[in-house]
Amino acid sequence: MAELRLEHIYKTYKGEVEAVKDLNLTVQDGEFLALLGPSGCGKTSTLRMIVGLEDITSGEMYIGNRLVNRLEPNQRNVALAFETYALYPPLSVFENIAFCLRARSIPKTEIGQRVRRVADMLDITDILDRKPAELGGGQKQRVSLARALVRDPDVFLMDEPLSHLDAAQRSHMRVELKRLHAQTGRTTILVTHDQLEAVAMAQRIAVMNFGVLQQVGSFDEIYNHPVNEFVAGFIGEPPMNFLPVTPVREAEKLHLAAVDGSFRILLTDALKTRVERSGAQKIDLGIRPIHMEVVEDEGDNTVDATVVTFESLGEEGQLAATVGTSTVLVVTSPWLRLDRGDAVRLRLRSERLHLFDAATQAAI
Amino acid sequence: MQSKVTSNRLAAILSDGFLALYFIFALFPILWMLLVSLKSGEQLFTTQFIFTPTLENYQAILFGDPRAAAGVVARQEFPKYFMNSLIVSSGAVIVSLLVGVPAAYALARYKFKGKEDLAFTFLSFRFAPELVVIIPLSVIYRQLGLYDTYWGIIWVYQLVTLPLLIWVLRSYFEDISPDIEQAAMIDGYPWWRIFWLILLPLVRPGLAAAALLAFVFAWNNFIFPLVLGGSNVQTVTVSALGYISSAQAFFNRMAAASVLASIPQIILALSIQRYLIRGLSFGAVKG
Lengths: 364, 287
Hints:
The complex is a heterodimer of chains A (about 375) and B (about 290). Helices cover about 25% and strands about 35% of the residues of chain A. Chain A has about 375 residues and is of the alpha+beta class. In chain A, helix 2 crosses helix 3 and helix 3 packs across helix 4. Chain B has about 290 residues and is mainly alpha-helical. Chain B folds into two domains: about 60 residues; about 210 residues, MetI-like (MetI-like fold, Orthogonal Bundle), CATH 1.10.3720.10. Chain B contains twelve helices and no strands. In chain B, about 30% of the residues are buried. The chains are: A alpha+beta (about 375), B mainly alpha (about 290). Chains A and B meet through strand 6 and helix 2 of A and helix 7 and helix 8 of B.
């Protein structure tokens, strides 16, 4: 077990493509961290650098205060569960798990004990004699996890571990992985593009985009206090709505007026100070679909909208409506009766507004 | 429903019948060869299927012709030619394996400049008719002292055996996920042990099938040993010519030699049959 520390890590391919830029990240001893981002955001490059399959272009990487930049993968004492499982087809499940122990010339009796211990933990003792080709997806997954854990790694990395499982296995495995982490107490890094996985399993989430670490924090921090528009839009399903607005001062009050002139919203004092301090002239107003509601009466924080589509999804309804020239998505009760072209009034929960400087995309 | 079942059965009978016909058609030359090899000189040009078989042709090619008269070529050196064929064909396949397996791996795994051109160049060895290159080759061989040597023939056979091996194995290696190698690297194995323990067992069907075909092609090759080999490395294919002389054509002896010469291929094919179909249908299609 150990702390993993990345300091000013860069990864540049062929002197041109910058896959990872100035990454600073500390994963505490025993922590479960998710590295989350869309494909091509640099999370896989980061993972491969930690494991040692990829050279670090510049920066320093420490595992338990040991500089590992120049160490070979097997000298770093890290384990990786591959997305494709990457089991060794010619070898039995037992030999697959024992493979890394054999490389270290560990005595035979101890190999047997250790393999059986992890096999027990992952509930695969009954398939130890089989070949990988005879296993189902869930079993392969367990074998690949067992193979990674058997060596007692300092850092345990998982690359999209659930992406090849069906929905039922996936939710089952989420629970399992969390239990496994609690049981082994290993420093664990989960790489995923699926926010649900990250939220369900990890203690902290690191969001990356375009090779840059955007924000690290608990789900609460990332969801309620996103540092920029990317994080705000990436976390949450359905994604956050953004409306372009400009601040308008009127008799000591600060309003946000839609750029297309379709609505005007009065800001609370707290938000007012923040907007004034930032001095931003163009603002993107962010509001999550669940923080808007369809209302009858006119009142504060309401905007007029026109229905584009309304879908009843059983437990909830999803309304797409145009506000001026923008389109917003609203999560509603499923019992509404709305048709295309109907005029509706939407209320925005003022304490749930997110404001971003349109020029820098950073949160205000 | 009923009619559909009957028509399916009819189709099955027809296709079985067709396959049986083709089977006879394809194997008839082998049967004929066997029959001719058992005939004496007098029966040679008859089309009789029932005759008194004789082993004198085999005796003649293996142990010499007791009735050899002046002017008639005595062909008792068959065992020597057989050994020559065995040496150059196996030698060619072994050299191709040693060179071709790493080459196929490199072509499958690494990105480098001119990779596809290189791969195509290997394949193009099979395009050019051997006759096109044989004259310059023979000039070069005489100058280099490779003429009529085992090494010379083994070397020139690479034109025949290497492209096949590289192309079949390349698609096999491409099918293996690089993740597997990386997993083994993290597990702490040097590259050559990963290759030996994990990769080689995975490509074995392709290796067996390609090596067998390469052996067959090398064994059957005629023009290279005819021109580049002299009396020292004469192979069975070339020696078959010797049964025809200006005075007499010993087609029965030629047939006996052919029967013996096809034995190694038949044994090899049967022994790795289970790899053969899978090996060639699996990897090769995707390449």
